[in-house]
C-alpha cells in the first residue's frame, strides 16, 4: 500500500449476507477498497495470491474449514498480509489461539460497523 492509496480488503465468510454487509460497509468508507470475497479459504487462496490485498477478514468457523487451522498456510503464502479474524465466538480460547498464531485482529460479528472498519485501517 502506498501513501494516499486505499486499503484493499478481501473477505472470507461462508454466509453470503455477511460478505454482502461487509462489502457495503467497506465500499462506503473512503479509505478502504473492497476487492473481493469468497465463501472458503480454498476458493480465496488462488485469488488473493494474484491481487494486491492489504487486509484479509476471515471467519474462524467456515463450512468444512477452520480459519484458525488455515491461518498458518495463509501467513506462509502472504507474510505481509494483515489477517483479522471475524467471528461469533466470544470464547477466550478462540481469542487466545488467534493471538498465539499471530493474528492482527479479532472482531466479533456483533461489533458495530465503526469498530469493524476501524480495525481494518488500524
Automatic annotation (TrEMBL):
Modified residues (4-aspartylphosphate): 59
Keyword DNA-binding appears in the UniProt entry: yes
UniProt KW Ion transport keyword: no
A Pfam family per the record: Response_reg
Organism listed in the record: Leptospira idonii
Name of the protein this chain belongs to: DNA-binding response regulator
InterPro entries: CheY-like_superfamily (IPR011006), NreC/VraR/RcsB-like_REC (IPR058245), Sig_transdc_resp-reg_receiver (IPR001789), WalR-like (IPR039420)
Key words, A-Z: DNA-binding, Phosphoprotein
Residues covered by the Response regulatory domain: 8-122
One of the protein's GO biological processes: phosphorelay signal transduction system
GO function terms (MF aspect): DNA binding
Source organism superkingdom: Bacteria
Amino acid at each position: 500500500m502506498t501513501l494516499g492509496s486505499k486499503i484493499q480488503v478481501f473477505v472470507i465468510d461462508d454466509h453470503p449476507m455477511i460478505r454482502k454487509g461487509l462489502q457495503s460497509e467497506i465500499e462506503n468508507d473512503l479509505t478502504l477498497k473492497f476487492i473481493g470475497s469468497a465463501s472458503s479459504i480454498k476458493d480465496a487462496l488462488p485469488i488473493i495470491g494474484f491481487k494486491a490485498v492489504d487486509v484479509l477478514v476471515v471467519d474462524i468457523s467456515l463450512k468444512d474449514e477452520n480459519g484458525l487451522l488455515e491461518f498458518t498456510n495463509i501467513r506462509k503464502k502472504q507474510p505481509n498480509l494483515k489477517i483479522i479474524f471475524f467471528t461469533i465466538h466470544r470464547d477466550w480460547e478462540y481469542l487466545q489461539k488467534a493471538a498465539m498464531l499471530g493474528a492482527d485482529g479479532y472482531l466479533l460479528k456483533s461489533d458495530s460497523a465503526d469498530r469493524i472498519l476501524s480495525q481494518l485501517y488500524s
